[in-house]
Amino acid sequence: MRALGPSVTAFLLVALPFMRSFPQVVPSQAYNQGNSFFQEGEYKKAIQAYRKALSLGVRNSYLYYNLGNAYYKDGQLGRAIWAYEKARILSPRDDDINFNLKLLRSFIEDKSSASSSRGVMKFFSQLPQFFALRELAWGETILYLFLTISLIGYLLSFKPGLRRTMRHLSTVFASLFFVSTLLLFARYYELNFKQRAIILSSQLEARSGPGDEYTKILTLHEGIEVEIKESREGWCLIKLPNGLGGWVERSSLLKI
Q1: What is the pLDDT of residues 208-236, one digit of tens each?
Q2: What letter does residue 236 receive in the DSSP assignment?
Q3: Is residue 201 domain-shared with residue 185, that is, in the same domain?
Q4: Count of CB atoms within 10 A of residue 193's CB?
């Protein structure tokens, strides 16, 4: 059953117990077992069942969404945010996923870690996240097809009016194709080369170097999203959305 919409005020208290169902049969019983455990209040068992489904190769926003619900009910804020982020990669405009993410992030202690980007810069930096990678790939293919057809029509047209129309259409499709290409590469880069992670420790000290002997420079808390810039001997150099950063133990992070 699909969760209630984000217009409900106490969303997590009311909507999280209602589990989503796959639109088609899952090739494993693990997902259904997870739903049963969740409804019985056995959240740790539900988590194990959902993770079992993941280990069997299931990749679906419904599964990650329900896993996030179970993590939240089990008191694991960081892992819940991680699961919702994984769900959002597959369904970036889903209202339930985005609302839960926004609400859970309001519980994070480090409000100052948020990005300082505003206005137009923030809009363009977040625009690729509005689409799933498969959507951009399909859009690119369709626009390329329309561009090809309009160019052929322009080259083969002998009537001035039709030729002019085909030229205008070619210009429009070429512009859209260029924009979609930029979005596709930006999204691909973000998902495959930009290492994002969620902090799992309730309190984490970031240091000036990769080791306990280095100076503490930041205190971070569970649920914060960071970017991993470098890894060295069990430590990671992380960067916060606001530009600050430091070295933390790799075991305290879960990559998205």
Answers
A1: 999 999 999 999 999 999 999 999 989 99
A2: E
A3: no
A4: 7
